């Protein structure tokens, strides 16, 4: 029952040798969602050993090149390796026309079915839902229309206490009912669901927010989210520039995470103008200590059996991320 | 007086960890021509330490993604780093509209001057000329219109014999006349140009030919070219597939080079279906022994002071390329 995020690109508009432009993959119980697709995303998928055959949903936050120029090549490659499964693309309405303008010289007809789901400015809405996950898009504030995405795992079924199965000789149809919250009757007495089950672990959640001016407009929506990836293009010394270009500083991202009472904050989309990436993490942690500067290749894992920690795999190392336990315990 | 080719991408449509899609840079006396621009070309320029600030001319052979999907990101990056010099793009006429469709959401107006030079199908013509180099485009044969490019260094000025300068007390204005082929008069006698000068070295030349079905239609044009980069997507065992997809086999590329009597052949655009890239070189050399399978990062250098060898820098090593000496000596 995996819930894992892989960072494919944590840089801003200018790719460098160790930070590519924005892209990441969220795996929710083996549904793989590609979020943004900067140039070179197909190269990063290979590098970090994620199969693009598993990707059936691509979400594009906005039409700045560092967030979507890799889409053309990825679709071409999917076609060349013989994809026939449908691909769902969620993004600004103009993206559909733009995509076909670029691909037309190459493909006389759609190489495989592509379902385009246009996002609508100024509205928050469910853009995907199945039995295990729901995705909500919400508008952010940038120089072009841009959306954040909130991924929420659905409530799990209740966990049956296995001792009770033999004690009450519970049948398989009854088990399914009990998991869904039902009770059973034995000797004309109701045996309550509460006696038969344990609470399931709380559902997991993740929000992606880039590029945007810091705004509290969408605070309520993402409040108590487990993990947020928020852009932090600038340091606070360049707050005026952040405002002018409609971006966020590392300090502001920390303030936002603190107010939103999340468990952990990942920051990224760093401008290349600064000497060290560590400066972003340092500045952000003054406001919210449970913050990490993302690196390309980072894999963040929500353990399936507890809600009090995240694991991060970075290169050869795996370690626990410090999390906001106040929140972790209250949920 | 450099004449150097850097291979940025030697693969075909599917990029791999060691071969990116097509792109290369030809430096002709410090004019840098970017030829094709597959996805990730800006990453490769950085990796192989070529400044994109020096690039004022980009030639796009055709509108298959592995030859131009990197153009969007490269132009965006050029803009972000403050480019103001004009950029010249040579390519299929549709490219101009396509480019602006993609860049429009990002740029309200042209970030810097872009001069678009549409290529015309079915014609061969000079697309660029200055005092040191001339570029000719010529149509190849593929599933979409595609052009090859021939780069020819211009005839150098004659080299003055320095002993003669003191012997005849030659003035600076006279030196310039002599270099251009003129003679001088001393004591009412003409001193011939031949006595005063050495022949300049023959001009250098390079042709780029991909993607294409093998065709002798353009043989005359590229005959005796120093170096040709020719696609060799398939091995001869897949000749039927090469014909069907309008590509060339390694064997055919070798036959073409032999007939064209060139000094050396570089092959590339290899399909990923084969186990080893060495197979292409092996097959090709049976027809034309002076052939090399290109690798990303290869730098081929035409020495300035002789015409009987090429140097190749590959990784940490520099070595001489075997060349067709019969041709080298006859020129």
TrEMBL record, chains A, B:
Q: Which CDD domains match?
A: RNaseZ_ZiPD-like_MBL-fold (cd07717)
Q: Which residues bind Zn(2+) 2?
A: 66-67, 211, 269
Cofactors (names): Zn(2+)
Q: Where does Zn(2+) 1 bind?
A: 62, 64, 142, 211
Keywords, sorted A to Z: Endonuclease, Hydrolase, Metal-binding, Nuclease, tRNA processing, Zinc
Q: Which residues form the active site?
A: 66 (proton acceptor)
Keyword Cell membrane assigned: no
Write down the EC number: 3.1.26.11
Q: Which GO terms describe its molecular function?
A: 3'-tRNA processing endoribonuclease activity; zinc ion binding
Q: Tell me how this protein assembles.
A: Homodimer.
Please identify the protein, giving its name as recorded.
Ribonuclease Z
Please name the source species: Salinivirga cyanobacteriivorans
Instruction: Give the gene symbol.
Output: rnz
């Amino acid at each position: 029952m995996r819930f894992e995020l892989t960072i494919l690109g944590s840089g801003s508009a200018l790719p460098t040798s160790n930070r590519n432009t924005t892209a990441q993959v969220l795996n929710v119980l083996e549904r793989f969602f590609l979020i943004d697709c900067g140039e070179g995303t197909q190269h990063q998928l290979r590098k970090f050993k994620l199969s693009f055959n598993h990707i059936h949903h691509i979400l594009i936050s906005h039409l700045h090149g560092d967030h979507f120029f890799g889409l053309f090549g990825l679709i071409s490659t999917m076609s060349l390796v013989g994809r026939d499964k449908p691909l769902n693309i969620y993004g600004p309405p103009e993206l559909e026309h733009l995509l076909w303008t670029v691909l037309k010289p190459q493909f006389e007809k759609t190489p495989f079915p592509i379902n385009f789901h246009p996002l609508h400015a100024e509205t928050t809405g469910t853009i995907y839902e199945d039995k295990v996950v729901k995705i909500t898009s919400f508008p952010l504030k940038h120089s072009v229309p841009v959306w954040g995405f909130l991924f929420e795992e659905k409530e799990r079924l209740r966990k049956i206490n296995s001792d009770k199965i033999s004690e009450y000789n519970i049948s398989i149809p009854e088990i399914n009912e009990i998991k869904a919250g039902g009770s059973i009757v034995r000797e004309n007495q109701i045996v309550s669901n509460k006696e038969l089950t344990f609470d399931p672990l709380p559902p997991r959640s993740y929000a992606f927010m880039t590029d945007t001016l810091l705004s509290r407009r969408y605070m309520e929506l993402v409040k108590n989210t487990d993990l947020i990836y928020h852009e932090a293009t600038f340091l606070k010394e360049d707050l005026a520039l952040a405002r002018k270009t409609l971006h966020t500083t590392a300090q502001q991202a920390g303030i936002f995470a603190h107010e939103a009472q999340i468990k952990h904050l990942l920051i990224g989309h760093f401008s290349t103008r600064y000497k060290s990436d560590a400066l972003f993490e340092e500045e952000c942690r003054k406001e919210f200590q449970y913050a990490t500067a993302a690196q390309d290749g980072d894999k963040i894992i929500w353990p399936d059996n507890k809600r009090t920690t995240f694991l991060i795999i970075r290169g050869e190392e795996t370690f626990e991320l410090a999390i906001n336990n106040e929140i972790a315990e209250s949920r």
